[in-house]
Amino acid sequence: MKCDIFVHVDFQNWNLSWVGHGAVLNIDGEVELDSIIMDGETLATGAVASVRNIANPVSLARAVMEKTDHVMLTDRGASMFAERIGIPIADDLVTELERKDWEQSSSFPVGVEKFFNTQWGHDTVGAVALDSLGNVACATSTGGIRNKMVGRVGDSPIIGSGGYADNRSGAVSCTGHGESILKVTLARLILFHMEQGKSATAAAEASLQYMGERVKGCGGAIVVSSTGDWAASFTTPCMAWASIKEDVLHCGLNPKEDFTERLK
Ligand SMILES: NC(=O)C[C@H](N)C(=O)O
């Protein structure tokens, strides 16, 4: 199957930091992960929020989509479900590196400042895809923002905020300040603009600008339309992203960067 895939990864130390192992810690020094996956053909969706002991929360989100009658499971219920279907329970997702960063960080607002107004943001991985039949899908996974309150759920697992996919328009995965993204339902807002005729880039830029003006939030999004138009846009200082379309790889980190390589 021919497939276009776009990925954003808004962290920088690829081998040091990840969404499960090495995710940012909450105020009590624990990992709590949020994740969503959505199928644009049927609007089937699975999400998990505040899960503590699952190394790959997006696999659990997918199981929620495929094996339950629900859209989202949280915390203890999500862990019980994981155990029941044989998804491995991880003992400890806290890394030494993240523990040190957490010890030196003082509060959630400082975390927000450091994540989204400097080059040190990390912790969210997202993907959107389009196949040759015009089916789109999205997935987003995150540890959130350092020093978040216990039980805080960000945008990532919330349908229409951290991600959305609909074959009638396209798929979006978002990153950035979760509380801002939630207030403007960023993923759905971007698709709304596309439904009104905007290109993927124009829709993402207009929506991110609106989020900046309306709630002073920074973020980024990767977008693919069901016709193959795509975008990677951000108002944070940087966002690592990559796309593959017709055997051409594009990637970038800083604003206006677009490195291109033919793969075959
Ligand atoms: N790095 C991120 O994208 C954080 C995520 N959006 C959250 O607020 O939970």
UniProtKB/TrEMBL annotation:
SUPFAM superfamilies: N-terminal nucleophile aminohydrolases (Ntn hydrolases) (SSF56235). InterPro entries: ASRGL1_meta, Ntn_hydrolases_N, Peptidase_T2. One of its GO terms (molecular function) is asparaginase activity. GO terms for biological process: L-asparagine catabolic process via L-aspartate; proteolysis. It is an enzyme of class 3 (hydrolase). One of its GO terms (cellular component) is cytoplasm. Its EC number is 3.4.19.5, 3.5.1.1. The keyword Protease applies. Substrate binds at R152, V153, G154, D155, T175, G176, H177, G178. The active site is at T124 (nucleophile). It comes from the Eukaryota. Pfam families: Asparaginase_2 (PF01112). Keywords: Autocatalytic cleavage, Hydrolase, Protease. It catalyses: Cleavage of a beta-linked Asp residue from the N-terminus of a polypeptide; L-asparagine + H2O = L-aspartate + NH4(+). The record marks D123, T124 as: Cleavage. Belongs to the Ntn-hydrolase family. This is Isoaspartyl peptidase/L-asparaginase.
